[in-house]
Amino acid sequence: MKWGTYLRESKQVDGNMYAKNCPSRQVLDRIGDRWSVLVVAVLRGGPRRYGEIAATIEGVSQKMLTQTLRALERDGLVTRTVHATVPPRVDYELTGLGRSLLGLVAALENWAYTHMGDVLAARDAYDAR
Amino acid sequence: MKWGTYLRESKQVDGNMYAKNCPSRQVLDRIGDRWSVLVVAVLRGGPRRYGEIAATIEGVSQKMLTQTLRALERDGLVTRTVHATVPPRVDYELTGLGRSLLGLVAALENWAYTHMGDVLAARDAYDAR
DNA sequence: CTGCATCCTTGCTGATACTG
DNA sequence: CAGTATCAGCAAGGATGCAG
């Protein structure tokens, strides 16, 4: 079953994290997105142009970046500002809601740097068997 | 490019979160996994049998659950204990490393419940255009 | 510069059936 | 009970070309 299905089926909050329609799952879906967290992290430093974000995040395709930015915009986490210049210039910036995620992102980053060695060691040990 | 590729290509830490081989990305990959976080949350309450986990998490298939548990075990987040009884009984339990993730999971959950209303409202507003 | 449209490949995912 | 094996369907993601 896909997440799109969950969203279509219900938007209600039922308080059970393990239920299909739980908002936690929907948030997990966004956080879990491979690029969303990285984009939010980039925007931590203030507004950024499309090209700047693309240049900062290695390995993201144009398609995925645009798709991710649209999703973040839809969820009210970032704003998109188009400047009517030639060539066009588009700025993305975190909203208040988006900034409320920064603590989480920092915690995620922190856990990663703190425990990555353990995880890699565990993987090596597991694979050695 | 897939994550598997990253892991194969390099296991080094380079300190740049936006670089392809950054450990942050590898951790994000696991956190980002649809089921990993839910499984860790279930195991918060202590050891659980395979069937208990399956019954708690709605919508997870047997295949995905097994796959998720194996990945968590490989990463050193969960231990798997097989009891030689008939019928067999398999318990899963968080390791110390796994428990170090609990704060993050709680923060994630907390953000979800706190801001889900805003996100859903933003989506409605966006879709209405 | 920004980003939409299209094609195309990959592999995730769920359903089903079977085993120790 | 707790898996493994296999298969079909579909969606995610990348590459390319074009437009405003």
From TrEMBL, chains A, B:
Swiss-Prot/TrEMBL keywords: DNA-binding, Transcription, Transcription regulation
Cited PROSITE patterns: HTH_HXLR
Keyword flag Nuclease: no
GO MF annotations in UniProt: DNA binding
Annotated Gene3D superfamilies: Winged helix-like DNA-binding domain superfamily/Winged helix DNA-binding domain
Entries under InterPro entries matching the protein: HTH_HxlR, WH-like_DNA-bd_sf, WH_DNA-bd_sf
Taxonomic superkingdom: Bacteria
Residue ranges occupied by any HTH hxlR-type domain in the UniProt entry: 22-120
SUPFAM superfamilies in UniProt: Winged helix' DNA-binding domain
PANTHER family membership: TRANSCRIPTIONAL REGULATOR, MARR FAMILY (PTHR33204), TRANSCRIPTIONAL REGULATORY PROTEIN (PTHR33204:SF39)
Protein name according to UniProt: Transcriptional regulator
Native organism taxonomy: Bacteria, Bacillati, Actinomycetota, Actinomycetes, Micromonosporales
